[in-house]
Structure formats: structure tokens, C-alpha cells
Amino acid sequence: MQVRLLHTDRKPKVGSILAFEIRTTEITSNIYYQIISKGGIIESGGLDMQSSKLKRFNLTIIKEMTPRARLITHYVRKDGEIVADAISFNIDGSFENNIEIDFDVQETRPGNEVVVSIKADPDSTVHLLAVDKSVLILRNDNDIKESTVLEELKSYDQYCSYGSCFIRVPSLFGVEDTDELFQENNLAVLTDAMVYKTPRPPFEIVSVMRSDRRVSIGGSIAEPKKHVRTLFPETWFWLNKTIGPDGMTSLSVPVPDSITTWVATAFAVNPNSGLGLDPSPANLRVFQPFFVSLTLPYSVIRGELVVLQVNVFNYLKKDIKVLVIINKNTAFKNVITYLKDNQAKTGRFSFRIGRTFNIAPGEIYPVYFPIVPSEIGDLKINITATSTGASDSIIRTLKVEPEGLEKELNNPVLINTGDSGTFSEDVRIEFPPNTVAGSRRIRASVIGDVMGPSINGLDSLLKMPYGCGEQNMLNFAPNIFVQKYLKVTNNLTPDLEKKAKEYMIKGYQRQMTYVHPDGSYSAFGKSDASGSTW
């Protein structure tokens, strides 16, 4: 028997009708079929062959069959042998909640307001993310994608046990017999008919861990404004909105100061139509024809000589004369080389320093400012570039750390209020004599538990027991001790107590499956020769 999909040039989608053809080598009265998807039987039925070796029939695609379904057909010969065949096909339409996101303009200047428009099914909760495109070049697998969700749905077809999933590796020459066909489709067959099985070596088993916009664009670029660029995040916005009854919402947000392209994505969740993913991200280009960028290290040491590189970009259509200034800041000294008595000398001064030069259209001109930070903390560096036709100003922050090695000392105090309900004690604070100036700091905290910070987040130790006998106990036992401690210290909330009891009950039931007749336990229970001492 052979089953095949007709009209293979048409991509199946939810709501469409697929035509199938079945051919047999002998006349049979009835053929039975099952449609399987995501590890379950979605539909089943029988076909009257009407004393023919050829049968064509139609099936309507429903959402439960997405993203991939398999049609399995079989019949029973007069001699009692089961004959079967199967075909798999992918289906579009896993997401009923259609969502779109877009900006009201394609390009804007730093600091301007833009409108983000979102469309989705009414009463959906939409989650929005906008990230600098340069960050996505380094890594783009942190967002929810359609391919990721579909792969997760397809993984439900795998057979899972003890936290792992197993994929049966098929023969290089395809399915050899009916028994293999049923096994490949994870079907358990209970019958007194004959399911033919070709003598062959056992299948190899491979274990794999399961891991766990289209609106019209308008507007114009704003005229240049006197704007100091100070905001340079990698993530612009990360928020959620609720869609109204009209299926639309929007928000106005200020654009960060980075000269870059922002990539915005969205997904929506609806109680009726479920999950929806934006099929294509919305892009917003932030640009101005004349700007500067400042290259900074993550941090420097106080007293260290740092050479700041300022790059000036000219995308104007003419040559311009530029003045670049680093503004005065008492938290650092400028390193200046000057002439005195016809000799070049170098000194450190706290001045407002400027550089002038000519730059051609399309050029990038680097300017260097050597400085020496003199104070610890966040050092603000203000760079201003002016020309005959445009200007730009930025403020960036450089982290200045103290010299030497960081060392922390702890001075615990046990508080006992007694009957008075108050407590007072003088704590003597002493610093080592060789402490670096400006690096001294004191932090005080009060914790209402004698165990102090060692039990902070203790409820996170509650875990669902799983795995073999040893793994199960490893997760089962802490639930008991954590629940007891939280109860004694009056920190056990009703939700935590319910969670702990559910985990303990399931852990105990699982542990009982590994017991031996003599009362001992082992990793795999009665399949082991004897119990173990763990």
C-alpha cells in the first residue's frame, strides 16, 4: 500500500483541504487512518474502498495538527497481516493571533519622539522589545522566534522519560516493515493480527536533552536641534501593553542617542487565540549627517594615563572646518604638550581643550585627548564638536576604580531587643592604615534571622523530584528540610507550603518505585541485582 499527498505545490495551512491518494496491490473492503501531531492522535476514521485498489479522499486541516502532522493508514489482509503506510507534512498556521509592530517613521534623529504602533487580537497582552542592531550581530538567540516555537512543538513527537528525550534513528533505506512504521510514529499496537517485523539488529538509540508589520510609513526627518546626547543603551525598551477592543494600541517613546538602527520585535498572548509572533521586526534608523563618537574602555584606574579617541563623522555634502572640545572637569587632568623656552614640555592641567581640523565629505577624522583621572567613581566626559553647518555634543561616563586590591571586612552584631523592644550599640569601625584614599565605604544591613544572609532565597531550593533513585532523593530530601526550617522561622507562606507538600508527595511516590523486596533501594529498583547503601 502507498499513500501520497496530491497537489504538493500547495503549502498546507489551517483551514485548507488536503487531497490524499491511496493505492493498494490487492482489493480490500476498508482502510483505516489516524492523524498524529505533537504526540497525540488528532483524528481517526475509516475509508470504504468500494472494491477498488485506488482511493482519493480529502482531509480538512485544523489547528491541532500544526506545525507537523502524520497520516498513518492501514488495513488487515485476509490472512491476518496488517499492511500500513504513512506520510508526514508540515502545516502553516500555528499562530492564530496575528500581530504587527511598526514605527511611524523609518528614520529619525537622536532624542526625537516616535510612535510605535501595534496590532493584535483584541484583549491581547503584547510584549515589546527594541534592541540595538549591533548587539544582535553578536548574538540574536535571546528573543522568541517562530522557528524556536515550532521546533519546540515538533519536539513533542519525541518519546521522553526521566528528563531526557529519545529519537529513534531510522534505517538508511527507510521504513522496512509495518512494525517499524508503527514504532517510528510512537504508536502502541494492541492486536491479534500479524504485525510483520523483519529480523534485523536493534535500532540505535540517540538521547537528546530537551531544552527545556505592514502599516503605511510617513513623516519627515526633524530639523537639527541643540541636543546633548547622553543616553546610549543596548536595549531601548522592554515593556508590555494591553490591546484594546479595536485590536490596536500605540505608544510614544523618546529615541536614544545612539547613531544606529533599532530592531523592534513583539509577541502577544491572548486567552482565546493564544500566542502570536511578529513575522518580521520593525527597524528604525537613527542618524544625523554630522556626529561624533567616543571610544571608552570599561574602566580605568585612578592616576592611569588614558587616551580618549573621538571620531568625527562628516556625511554632509561639503568640506567643513571642525572644532572639537573636551570640556573641563576637575575629576581629571588633561595631559598637554607645550613649548617653553623653545623646548617641548608636558604638563597636567584642568583646562577646556580644543582641536581644529578640516574634514571632507564622507570622511571619519580621529581626535585624541590624553587625560589622567584623579577621582574615583563615574567620570563624566563631555565632548562638543561644532562646524560651519552642524554640531553635536555627547556626554559619556567612564568608570574610575581605586588603585590597589579590594578587600572587605565584616563586623557582625547580634541584635536582641529583649523586653524593651529597642536596641542600641556602638560599633567601632577601623580601616587598615594603608587604605587607598577615597576607596573607604561602609554598608550596613539588618536581617531578621539568626542565620543571616546564608538562608536568603532558601525557598528556591524547593524542586520537583525526578530521575533515578539517586537523583530523586537528591531533590526530594531538601524539600523536607527547607519546609521545616521555614515553618520554625515563621517564613512559610501558604503557597510555599502547598508547593513543598506537592513536591514531597510526588517525590515519595517516585521513590517507592525503586524499592526492593528486602526494603532496600537502588538507582533503578528491581532491575538492579541488589539494593545499594547510598
Task: Produce the secondary structure layout.
Layout lengths: L1 E4 L11 E7 L6 E8 L2 E9 L5 E7 L7 E9 L5 E9 L9 E4 L3 E2 L4 E7 L5 E8 H6 L7 H9 L4 E3 L2 E5 L9 H7 L20 E4 L19 E2 L5 E8 L5 E7 L6 E10 L3 E4 L4 E5 L3 E6 L3 E3 L4 E9 L5 E7 L5 E9 L2 E7 L3 E7 L4 E10 L3 E11 L3 E11 L67 H20 L5 H18 L23
Parallel strand pairs: 9-20, 15-30, 22-30
Antiparallel strand pairs: 1-2, 2-5, 3-4, 3-6, 6-7, 8-10, 10-17, 11-16, 11-18, 12-13, 13-14, 18-19, 18-20, 21-23, 23-28, 24-27, 24-29, 25-26, 25-28, 29-30
Question: Can you describe what's shown?
Answer:
By secondary structure, the protein is mainly β. It has four domains: 2-93 and 175-194, Immunoglobulin-like (Sandwich); 100-151 and 213-286, Single Sheet (S-adenosyl-L-methionine-dependent methyltransferases); 290-401, Immunoglobulins (Immunoglobulin-like, Sandwich); 457-527, no CATH class. The protein is 11% helix and 38% strand. The strands form seven sheets. Strands 9, 11, 16, 18, 19 and 20 form a six-stranded mixed beta sheet that branches. Residues 159-173 and 201-225 have low confidence and may be disordered.
